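=== Structure Prediction Worksheet ===
Name of assembly: unnamed complex
Input type: mixed (protein and possibly other molecules)
Chain count: two
Listed entries:
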Amino acid sequence: MRNNEKNKIELAGLLDGELKDVAQVEKLAQAISANPDLKRAYDEQRSVKSALGSLPEYDSPDFMATRVLGEIAAKKRPGRIPALRVLVTTIGSLALAVLAITATTQLFLAQNQDGNSDALIAHETSRAFTPPEPVFTPQDWREITPPEDVTDERVLEFLIFANEAHAYRVMVSNTGVMSPDMGEALLVLDTGGSR
Amino acid sequence: MEMTFARGMVLTQKKSSEAPAVDADEVTLVNRSANRDEKAYGMLVQRYQARLFNFVRSMVRNQELAEDLTQESFVKAYFSLQRLQNPASFKSWLFRIANNNTLDYLRKKRLPQVDVDEHLRESYVDDASPEKKHVADSRSEHIRDALGKLKPDQCSILVMCDLQGLSYAEISATLNIPFGTVQSRIFYARKKLKNHLDKSILFGTEK
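=== Predicted Assembly ===
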């Protein structure tokens, strides 16, 4: 019975001209002649194949190449930022903002020039935060407007977010002296600053 | 090679079941397309659009949907071209993308079994007789309805083999399954389809 089923399956290959072994083809052909069940199965395969082969083709749609190339060009358009990337970037920026705000409770408070004691210095670092030493005076810092001087894309997006959404002032060091624990940028959170 | 049997059954064996040789021109077009030459890719689209559309159209039974899925398949293929290791296997690779794309859609959506574009169906009968045209249209509709009742992967393999004329080697490369599996799937898919076809169509007794 198992052999009969195997023979039946090979009927498809025989019908489609896919059996390369001549001896196998002859053996199968003889089996078909001798076995009515096998012959019936072969006739069914052939009828179904013939019915499918009789179906007319559909006309392919006009301008398919134009449509395809148009969609490709649209996907390649410069400046078009995929929505997922914007979402990931925004979430990342928010996460960094939360980290910076949390870290302010451990930060070193620096007096700014007019005695405003609200200025804080924050790290942007991937390692655990430690307060910078020595004390940095306001003369050592200059305010920038991102993207000036910031090359890291992730930091830049965070700084732009902090600067625009929360009126934080962004300061970078004039002295070039950085604590070994500093990350790639310093962010001054001036809650009293005016914009 | 032909073999004649006592009961008048004739078998004709193909000379080769190997996939037909790919012309150098197509390999060049594929390589250029992989380097983002859109003109070259446009030529590839024109070369395959009819076959790919018919393949998809035979599975989804809706003209607009088939156009969209075909277009989507070509676009996906373009952006994946750099991952194609052998440019000579572009055809199988393209059909694989279209097959997966279409099957994914069919799994997510529940589609009508009946062709909704009856009024656009073509007759293959040249004779202008309305009666013959009606018979031909009805016959085609019945066969396509029966095809639509199969599971998507069964429908897909029969469309590849019996409508698109892909060889077992090409189907094997497209579906990434061995020759023996191609053969058995085709056998059982035809057996299943037979159950949905009217006997008069199967054995040519219709008038």
